[in-house]
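Shipment paperwork, digital attachment
Item: protein structure file
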Amino acid sequence: MSNVTLRQLQAFATVAELGSFVRAAAVMHITASALSTMMAELEHTVGLRLLDRTTRRVSLSAAGERYLPYAQNLLRGMETINRVAVELRSQLSGRVRIATSQVIAWTLMPPLLLAYRKLRPDVQLELMDLPVDDILPALESGRADLAIILPTDPGPELQAETLFKTPVFLVCHSGHPWAGRKSLRWAEVVGEPLIFTGVDTSQRINAVLPESLRVQATTQVDHAGTAMALAASGLGCAICAEYVRPLTRMHRLKMIALVEPIVSREFALYTSRRRSLAPAVAGFREFLVEQMGAKKRGA
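Attachment content:
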């Protein structure tokens, strides 16, 4: 039975459907004699007469009537397997799990996910909004396929590429004296009550500011949403990346550009060195890089 081929089953199903060796051979683009030989080999292998042949017609035998549905099911299954393979190669289906922080999940990712769903509706996108310390471990363990986070030493098992850079802004409530300003120099905010998100944000910013300018957090929080709420209450001005803008609208806050110098925060896209990217994951990665590159170019 292991010698039965899909080509033989296709020949049998085609003859059964058309009731003619000549018509079936034409459909399969082979000669009638080659088709007859193929059917004889199938019947010999299975030890059953599947077709009753006369000089006028070809019909299914009793055994052939029982055998045909199983042959057709197998052929349909192979068609499905081939179609799935084509979809996978074409990045049309599959699953992509993206691990990132809550604020990026809230602000940056929804429009990107929506745009990609329109391009690849059969690709399942799973967004994992995790605490910062859990993002790269999720990628390392295989729970996530991609990770978006601030650059860090990824270790030997992960690799990173710059995904986007975003300038840093000052965020204040609408009644603040600075609310009408379009920009502020860093020298103006030194010594003011500042709210920072993340334990190392002030260190990162001070690392690129001149030595004469040093900012310090009056309040330190873990989540940008908390920073926005505190700023809205008048408890200080938040120092945030530009992508928090949707959150500022929720709290009716003002975003003011910080200049002299302009300070940017860089975010990286991480993948695993140990696992090759599935086609769907590779496709979404390319989409992310292209979209973020378009934003950077002002497209």
